[in-house]
Amino acid sequence: MIDLFQQRIVETGRLPLFGFFVAFIVTFVLTRVNVRLIRANVRWWFRNVTAGDLHIHHVVFGVVLMLVGGVASLAVPDAYVGLDLVSAVVFGMGSALVLDEFALILHLSDVYWTEKGRASVDAVFVALAVTGLLLLGIRPLGYEGVVPDGTTITGLYVASLGTNLALAVVTLLKGKIWTGLIGLFVPALLIVGAIRVARPGSPWARWRYADGSRKHQRAVRNEKRFRRPLIRAKIWVQEFIAGRHDLLPPELLQRHNAAERARRRKLARAQRRAAARAQRKFAVAGEQRVSGRVRRRAMSRARRRGIARARARTRIRRSEAE
Hints:
The chain is mostly helical and 322 residues long. The chain is 74% helix and 1% strand. The chain has a two-stranded antiparallel ribbon with strand order 1-2. This is Integral membrane protein.
């Protein structure tokens, strides 16, 4: 194993690239473990880095590490392989921190744990795939046959390079991102991606597939039959490694909270109005009951007075008659 590492990595000059690759993976895994523990609100773990009310994202530290590693790799002479390896490791750490928040840079919003945040994991996977292919000695578009003096650059190579680039552009326009990127290292994939039908919703499909046409129906059928299961599998792998991305975006969450508060205020107002109406009805009913009792008492007093007067008049008549 050591001899194979010596032959394939050290002797071929890929040791800095290997250091970058390992540092990238380790930093990404540790970063995701850290943010998942912070998200779970574990008491014994770290908290977000803040300066007052300002949340400092780890992309900031990643940019600093990338600058340090990149400038150091340019400043270190070629003979100092160890220092070059250290610079590559620092650059790999910074790259992992930056790409882990690629969605934040893309959307200029804190969408880390939302559906849009999956773009960060996709960017990390792309970087790992490209770096891994480079580490295996596979070069994009076959440029490993070109030497610095340019003696091997021929018309055939230029034509092949132009053809591969054209196929890569067509594949990417058809919405096949992974096929186009990996195809830069394996040109046979570019041929397959450029020939096969485009994904529905891609620029190629919008330009060349009319709604309801045979190609459009075939694209939709292939999307449901082949693409959807692959997407579900990719999401499962992403969630297993990086955690679930199922939260509302912060701006939508603020709108949702504002709407919820408005709904609660409206409900409270309606309840207060209903209580006031019930109280008024009760008060009116009480007043009506009181007025009824007063009226009955007055009528009773009036009858008693009338009876008393009638009796008095009867007594007077009797006394006059006697």
